[in-house]
Amino acid sequence: MIWMSWRQFRTPALVGAVVLAALAAYLISTGLDIRSARDGYLAQCHAAGDCPAALSRLAGDYRTRLLLLAGVLGLVPALIGMFWCAPLIARELETGTHRLAWNQSVTRRRWLLVRLSTVLLAAMLVSLAASALLTWAAAPVDAIAGDRFATVNFGARYLSPVGQAALAAALGAVTGLFVRRTVPAMALTGLLVIAILFVMPNAVRPHLMPAQHLSRPMTAAAIDEARGLGTLGSAPVVRGIEVPGAWVTDVSELLTADGRPLDSRTFNECLMHAPKTGARGTFGDSSPCLASHDLHLDIAYQPNSRFWRFQVLETALYLALSALLCAFAVWRIRHRT
Amino acid sequence: MPAFPGCSSISGMPNPHPVLRAAALAKHYGRRRALSGVDLDVPARRIVGLVGPNGAGKSTLLQLACGLIEPSAGTLSVLGARPAADAAHLARVGFVAQDAPVYASLTVADHLRMGARMNPRWDAPLARDRVAQAGLPLTQRAGRLSGGQRAQLALTLAAAKRPELLILDEPAAALDPLARDGFLRGLLQSVSDLGASAILSSHLLADVERVCDHLIVLAGARVQLAGDVPDLLAAHRRIPPGEPLPDGAERIHGAVVRTPAPAGAAVELSELVLAYLGRAAR
Q1: B215 — pLDDT class (breaks 50, 70, 90)
Q2: Taking chain A, what is the end-to-end CA distance rounded to the nearest angstrom?
Q3: DSSP codes of every residue in B214-252
Q4: What whole-number distance in Å separates Cα of residue A83 and Cα of residue A193?
Q5: Which distant-in-sequence residues (6+ apart) come within 8 Å of A304 by Cβ?
Q6: Chain A closest CA to B37's CA: distance in Å?
Q7: Checking phi first, is residue A60 left (phi over 0); if not, alpha (psi -120 to 50) or beta?
Q8: Which member of B132, B147, B153, B159 has the lowest number of beta carbons within 10 Å of its beta carbon?
Q9: Helices A108-145 and A160-179 sit at what angle, rounded to 10 degrees?
Q10: Is A64 on the interface with B (CB under 8 A)?
Q11: pTM listed for this prediction
Q12: Do B103 and A100 touch (CB under 8 A)?
């Protein structure tokens, strides 16, 4: 059975290996590029004595390229689900060969288990290799940037891609079992995987562990650190609030001392007709005007020290979902024809 | 329409080890009844012909027998156990599905290797001989074989498992007369080599007449007639319509009458089948 499973997987595996090899070559050359660029900057800056600035220029040089690479690698699970796993059962059902396979001296459940294990293992190995290469290539830039929880980057480093690939693989196989036709199963798998990879970082990841909270007084200086002021609905909000060494997951609207949102009339008054104070911050006279109302923000955040716990939790969640899907398929296949 | 009463008793002696035994077996697809109220008792070491018009439920019955689908109601046991009960039971039943599915991208040799890897009782010499006899090139991809060659490959895979029961769903349907002749000869050879039983469905009466010694007539989702061919022939006579019938005789359709009395003339198998199909269609 293992031989048969491998024999049927041989062609897709070869295609996958070729794609992976091309990707690996590019990642390695990028990693070497980054390292030689870093050494160049460091050699220059030691002489000039402004290394932090030089390093942030390095991060700036490669940020876009690395983000694109993370995005491309983010598609790997969807591709694995679509091309390796959706046809796994769908094609058998579509061409009728399940009637041949299921009448060998191997129970249907064992047949499915072996076939699932083959693609799951391959999917996880491929994504592990891709993730390890990208993590290595980006390491110098990641060390400077410090935004370890950034949506795209977090999901493209270390363990998380392995979990994503396992879930995509299981999802592809199960979709094939129910859709029973190869091309629709592939399309549906692609959509589902992309939906999951969108929902996970935006709706699930912030809540994997209870967030820590802090209340930040909105002094004129604190307001000037923000990227924008505005209203969301009718509530005044501050955008672009950062907590050093942490991932901000939620920021309240501007709150007054008694914990109620600032009324928008007062807010607009400060924006439009602030008393002249000669303040020179980002928001000029508006900052001291708002600060005079004794405002604060409730900020929910996840400290960067939780990075590994988040990686493990998220990967475990993906793997658990994948295992559930596989168990469901194995339970269900006895009654499928 | 009512099931023909006593159809399973025509075969005479009840067999202690039936290859196939069904009681009140039914299979529905949504509201459509593919099979209903099927009672069967097929003795061992027979070549069973399953005949009936298209849509009569032949494929359904065979797929139930090999465990590919599950009954909606009633019970079915094959070689004394639930179909496809476990790996050991799967090994005892060989199945060639309708239009003989094979993996188009794998070669003939790959298929034999698959058979060897997935069946503990695989008979490699038998498989090699059969493939050589049928003239199948080992390096040919199965997708490029002709219909007849594909059927031969599928039969080889099923036979080299050394099953106790071979089930074949319309195995010769797609073949031209010459290929069909070769296929049926191969089938008879395999069954006698294996000492196995076989059930094959066909809508070609001539094929069934040629190879089968037990008959099941299926029409309108029900069993119309079942039994060993000599018993069936002995239990029916040809008495033209209008002529008086012996005591206890029952006119089936046209001139065919079910009676143990030696009245009228002997019937032929095809005549008998057509009479039961005609009655079912009435």
Answers
A1: very high
A2: 20
A3: EEEEEETTEEEEEEEHHHHHHTEEE--TTSPPPTT-EEE
A4: 12
A5: A146, A148, A149, A245, A246, A247
A6: 22
A7: alpha
A8: B132
A9: 150
A10: no
A11: 0.88
A12: yes
